Amino acid sequence: MSDLKARIQGIRDAFNQALGQVEGLKALEELRNQYLGRKRGIVKDLLNDLRSAPKELRPELGQVVNRLKQAVESGLAERLEELKSGESDGSSERGIDITLPGIAPELGSLHPLNVVNRDLIRIFERMGYEVAGASEIETDFYNFEALGLTKDHPARDMQDTFYITDEVVLRTHTSNVQIHMMQNRKPPFKAIMPGRVYRKDADITHSPMFNQVEGLVVGENITFTDLKGTLEHFLKQLFGSDTKMRLRPSYFPFTEPSAEVDVTCIICGGKGCRVCKNSGWLEILGAGMVDPVVFENVGYDPETVSGFAFGLGVERVAMLKHSISDIRMFFDNDLRFLSQFN
Ligand code: FA5
Predict the structure, then answer these.
(1) How many beta carbons lie within 10 A of that of residue 203, not counting itself?
(2) Residue 269 pLDDT
(3) What is the mean pLDDT of the chain?
(4) Nearest CA to ligand 1 atom 28
């Protein structure tokens, strides 16, 4: 009898000690199972053991075990309240259950347009180009006039412009940086000019704000062959070494001759598909030899210097690379879209 009583007292002490160390709801539940579990609980084992005690002692021992059971139950209930209201010590003070799995912070990633922008810049940096920029709010002179787009020039209609005043615009292309660069520098130089530009244009392939990357090389004896070789190297780096390029005659007021540059369709490899409208080719950028008029406008002598320039749309490249059909997805800030580029 006294043996069993001593054992019960030992169990009670061990329980109280364990209860004091419980830090969270999960640990409390484990303690409950350990003591009150229906199949293998300590209290259950005690009750089983009672069966082998002498018959006349069983009622009294039964009462002792029942008191232990009640003490365990009320101890557990009290601790549960404490944990819930955050009144206990340690980490459960703020009602936090440190045994629950944590919420890991999500890692951000670069915007797909920034990835393409960086790729483009890196390719040209490896060819020794410097990176230049200028203001997005620009005077008519730098955005148009100096580039040969006089006020009455019909080509002004090619770019639907946001006017701030008669003389100040949101730049419609990055070609304005060419003029700043040439005014501030003596040739030779080669530069790449990334930046945001604006046009009154909005549909699934045109955005009122988009990104361009401009290139400008000026020096002595720069020829159309240099332009072709540079662009061919650039496009192979960007789209893969199998990529082929073709030049089509075109017109820009600031280059002469001018060309539209196509690459073999990166989706079908040139066989013809929906994306390239079965032509096998995709238009990727505009380019040409810097027009002598532009050199005159910045004070260079067109007899001694020559150069080439090109400009491409970053969204267009990103859309092709990732088979994206709607340009607006880049600007909707929908994480379901953006997180695909992690
Ligand atoms: C130009 O802007 C010339 N400044 C490019 C250039 C530079 C030619 C130097 C020669 C020498 P264009 O208007 O074609 O050219 O625009 C260039 C690219 O910008 C287009 O090929 C297209 O990819 C992209 N683009 C034009 N409008 C939009 C728009 N609204 N939204 C998204 N991309 C556009």
Answers:
(1) 9
(2) 86
(3) 91
(4) 206
